[in-house]
Amino acid sequence: MTRLFALFAACLLGLPPAFAQSPMGAEEFDAYTRGKTFYFGANGAPYGAEEYLDDRRVRWSFLDGKCQDGHWYEEDGLICFVYENKPDPQCWSFRRGTSGLIAQFRNDAAEATLYEVETSDEPLMCLGPEIGV
Predict the structure, then answer these.
(1) Does 24 map to a domain?
(2) Residue 113, in any domain of the structure
(3) What angle do CA 12, 64, 13 make, to 5 degrees?
(4) Is 81 inside a domain boundary?
(5) What is the pLDDT of residues 67-95, one digit of tens each?
(6) CA torsion, ordered 112, 114, 117, 120, to nearest 10 deg
(7) What is the domain range of residue 66?
(8) pLDDT tens, 14-63?
(9) Per the domain annotation, does 126 fall within a domain?
């Protein structure tokens, strides 16, 4: 709970970095993310977290304890994600800014830019399946 509070505080105080490098390709993205859990913010608020596993597998959560498993691949210079309950690819342009990753959603220009708030070596916390009435 303390980590979640710290994440919210960091999002409220932090702004996405202004400086960013060129877009990351698959090899650079995999080397930067594999084995870590990234917490992302958007517009000064917490947005979600993603755990990057071996073999380009991922686990995403909107920080509500519900997780979606999926995988990623590179297409046309973008990093695209497909999740178990969302088969349409979600493609992003990732760059390294002065404070970490910056992700720009490419499927819909109106979507917010995400930025790295925190990185952890700990797995993403996912609640078990809902059981009962």
Answers:
(1) yes
(2) yes
(3) 5
(4) yes
(5) 999 999 999 999 999 999 888 999 999 99
(6) 140
(7) 2-120
(8) 444 444 478 999 999 999 999 999 999 999 999 999 999 999 999 999 99
(9) no
